[in-house]
Amino acid sequence: MPLFLLKRILSTVPVMLIVAVLVFMLLRLTPGDPAAIIAGDAASPENIARIRASFGLDKSLLVQFGIWFGNLLTGNLGESYYFKKTVVELIVQRIEPTLALSLLTILIAVVVAVPLGVLAAWRMGGLLDRALMGFSVLGFSIPVFVLAYILIYLVSLKLDWLPVQGYVRIGEGSFWDFLRHLILPSVTLSVIYIALIARVTRAAVSEVLAEDYIRTARAKGLPESKVLWRHAFANAAVPIVTVIGIGIALLIGGVVVTESVYGIPGLGRLTVDAVLARDFPTIQGVILLFSFVYVLINLLVDLSYVLFDPRIRY
Amino acid sequence: MAVTDNPVSAGAAVSTLLAASAPELGLMARLWRNWMVRVGGMVLLVLVLIALAAPWLHTVDPTFFDAGSRDLLPGAMGDITNLDNETIRHKFLFGSDSFGRDIYSRVIYGTRVSLIIGLAVAVLALSFGVLLGLLSGTLRWLDGPLMRLMDGVMAIPGILIAIALVALWRASLLTVVIAIAIPEIPRVTRLTRSLVLSIREEPYVEAAISLGTSTIVLMFRHILPNTVAPLIVQGTYICASAILTEAILSFLGLGLPTDIPTWGNIMAEGRVQFNQFPHNVFFPGVFLALTVLSVNILGDGLRDILDPKMSKRV
């Protein structure tokens, strides 16, 4: 493996370490007894004492972090006293709906936003361009849950095309049943993502379209579609892929809300349930997981630059 | 030097380009000529007036439970006790919720919470972000560690930080503002730092250093005023996203106590009966979307005028 790729991969280690420290400190910076907070509101005194001993909460902060971090490295995220399960078990149980929802959302967003952005850049100032820019400002402004209820009202209640809420696990029903329940949540979630990707695609492609080699390509008589996709789009790929990676943060925030509105038993719903129950091992586990996924995806995005632009080195 | 003496003309350095096309116009006139500033600003002004004049806009006590006027449709008449403890005939313009509270009054009073939160978060995040950015840009030894810390905070999706902090601290106006502001700080810090690093290379800063100006004076008198324009633009986006985040927290039942009328709280109560009474979700939703939209449009307009370098990018 080339050295610059290795360096980029290793550069995520300190970031992840800082994330771990921040998530660890979250609980310790709170006034009150951490053991009581970890045990949750309905804990007995014996439970609290057991937690204090097992987490070493009477020891120094550094030792506490050592114990916690050691557990983390061996894949032990602690135990949820509210759900009566280990956090890892909980996450495994809830990950499928979130993954399905996220993947479908990204698919819809990319398939819709990229062509729209390219076409808008191609005829900048035209009708499509202005409509797209208007839509993107609207997309950034309309809250995910308001949009969700508008769609539920129109598509599910008035037209009765799709179910209002719920989730069918893969293998529990037909594939159509599984997909039917995911369409509305994915469309809801994809709107802000489409707004973001389309805007950046438009900006990136329009910048490339001003380059000399585009004029050359046109001058030598290439068909416009080839100029647009082969020359302009291909050279604008890096910022587009970057924004898809950065947008994962938006997506994660959206997942929390969307899963709650549509009653999807995924990680977002788990986050809200855990917060309402003040179940801190679960909250910490989910935040760690989401953050690591975010860092990892952006690492993959950075590494993919090499595919799109061979000049790039770190 | 003229640029540093007058903070209002802080954008002067970047807007000389524009000045060439409109040499006679002052900053306010240039702002007014932009339709986005006009529309966004006017809508926002109306919302501020609504928030200030809430008690006089034909509203009743937004927290008053009236057992006799439960679940009324928009436009229905009913008896209700107003803020002066008199029973009056009241027209429920937006209907009432399942406790018999007037949705219209709750939505109007909710304007206050959203605007206060948006403004407070923007001010708080800007203050801390600018301070940290200035320190990071001027003190070399602090730069590395501080920016690594910011990388770590940015790796955790903002909404998850806000959710976790609110859960730990229990929600009040102050804790919600702080919880939403913290994940916004790193972006401001980065922006300020990059501005400081480029301003430091300007000849007038070099001149000031050679005249023996102290670091503190250099930071606040020579560098800070020239960062104002891009930071104001950033501030509007923070304001918009803070209003959205607060609504999401309230909607998920994690935000301000439910007796405080916020748009998110109204929607959280309305969602239970969404099938029969969709207006309980739609009216606050429309106000929320309109507010965020106007702040975003204002921000886009300000960016075009104050920060033309940025507007070319996206």
Main sheet characteristics of chain A: 2 strands, antiparallel
- Helix fraction of chain B by DSSP (H/I, runs of at least 4): 55-70%
Domain tally of chain A:
2
The percentage of residues in β strands of chain A lies in under 5%
Helices, strands, pairings?
The complex is a heterodimer of chains A (314) and B (314).
Chain A: H1 3-10, H2 12-28, H3 34-39, H4 45-55, H5 61-73, E1 79-80, E2 85-86, H6 87-122, H7 127-141, H8 144-158, H9 175-209, H10 212-219, H11 224-235, H12 237-246, H13 248-262, H14 267-276, H15 280-308
Helix pairs in contact in A: 2-15, 6-7, 6-9, 6-15, 7-9, 8-9, 8-13, 9-11, 9-12, 9-13, 10-11, 12-15, 13-14, 14-15
Chain B: H1 2-5, H2 12-21, H3 27-33, H4 35-52, E1 76-81, E2 87-92, H5 103-138, H6 140-155, H7 158-169, H8 173-181, H9 185-199, H10 203-210, H11 215-223, H12 228-251, H13 263-270, H14 279-306, H15 308-313
Antiparallel strand pairs in B: 1-2
Helix pairs in contact in B: 4-5, 4-14, 5-6, 5-8, 5-9, 5-12, 5-14, 6-9, 7-8, 10-11, 12-13, 12-14, 13-14
Describe the overall structure.
The complex is a heterodimer of chains A (314) and B (314). Chain A contains 15 helices and two strands. By secondary structure, chain A is mainly α. Chain A folds into two domains: 54 residues, no CATH class; 222 residues, Orthogonal Bundle (MetI-like fold). Chain A has a two-stranded antiparallel sheet with strand order 1-2. In chain A, helix 8 crosses helix 9, helix 10 runs antiparallel to helix 11 and helix 12 packs antiparallel against helix 15. The longest helix of chain A has 36 residues. Chain A is globular and about 80 Å long. Chain A starts with a helix and ends in a 6-residue tail after the last helix. A two-stranded antiparallel ribbon of chain B has the order 1-2. In chain B, helix 5 packs across helix 9. The N terminus of chain B is likely disordered. At the A-B interface, helix 2, helix 7, helix 8, helix 9 and helix 13 of A face helix 6, helix 7, helix 12 and helix 14 of B.
